[in-house]
Design a protein that fits this description.
The structure is a single chain. The chain is 32% helix and 27% strand. The protein is α/β, with parallel strands linked by helices and 250 residues long. It has a single domain (2-249), classed as Spore Coat Polysaccharide Biosynthesis Protein SpsA, Chain A (Alpha-Beta Complex), CATH 3.90.550.10. The chain is globular.
């Protein structure tokens, strides 16, 4: 399997930090969050990685280089315009080829990383067309929210809903969000091309996967047993940093 890391967002909620650097280069503990993400892929047995850069890409390229120092092989693509995460993933089409692949967003922090492999194994076991890593959240308005049945099959999803919109997407009274990692078959690229732009005129991967589901494809959700932070806000960034520091002190 190969891994794709979208890392082209501007990180507006983390200004003024992100006026100087991409949010993926903000440190959690001793290293940038994107290095933690690479460690996550390595925990899944993935060492061939494509990073989709954009906003202030220089620091990412300068720090990671070829990836050899980290024990991986890194290729880069540049998203020149902010057309959304699905557009960024579509840029990996030729590089991915014909095999299933993992997408993990460059601003996520997971612990323990080893548990992510269970999602890849679940994807293979269910012979899924797409498997979404899920994690409970209190505020659904910041995320893509997914409703699943008892076997993990996705019954519906919605991107960054209002609280009223989100009510129909509870599973057992809980909101589960797409937690920054997806395992996908290459057929996703066909559905991205068919996906209409949503909020802010961006194309969302959630909408492409929902289109797959409506066309009868096998879409599953797998709940992550661990801690996950999307470091898109100062609150979650500081929480992730505290957790990493605690781990380093053990």
């Amino acid at each position: 399997m190969k891994g794709v890391i979208p890392a082209a967002g501007k990180g507006n909620r983390l200004e003024p930090l992100t006026l100087a650097m991409p949010k993926e280069m903000i440190r959690i503990g001793r290293k940038p969050v994107i290095e933690h993400v690479i460690d996550n892929l390595k925990a899944c047995g993935i060492t061939d990685i494509l990073i989709i850069t954009g906003w202030k890409k220089g620091p990412i390229l300068d720090y990671l280089g070829s990836g050899r120092r980290l024990g991986v092989n890194i290729t880069y693509r540049v998203q020149e315009e902010q057309k959304g995460p699905a557009d960024a993933v579509h840029m990996s089409k030729e590089w991915v080829g014909d095999d299933d692949f993992v997408v993990i967003y460059g601003d996520n922090y997971f612990r323990p990383a080893e548990n992510l492999m269970r999602t890849v194994q679940f994807h293979r076991k269910m012979k899924a067309d797409a498997t979404l890593l899920l994690h409970p959240v209190d505020d659904p308005s910041r995320f893509g929210i997914v409703k699943i049945d008892s076997k993990g099959k996705v019954l519906g999803m919605i991107e960054k809903p209002t609280l009223a919109e989100a009510e129909n997407y509870r599973t057992g009274g809980i909101f589960y969000n797409i937690a920054g990692l997806l395992v996908l078959k290459p057929l996703i690229f066909d559905f991205i091309k068919k996906t209409r732009a949503g909020r802010n005129n961006e194309i969302y991967l959630t909408d492409s996967i929902e289109l797959m589901r409506r066309r009868g494809k096998e879409i599953y959700g797998h709940i992550f047993k661990g801690v996950r932070y999307d470091i898109g806000t100062f609150e979650s960034l500081m929480a992730a940093d505290r957790l990493e520091v605690q781990h380093l002190q053990k």
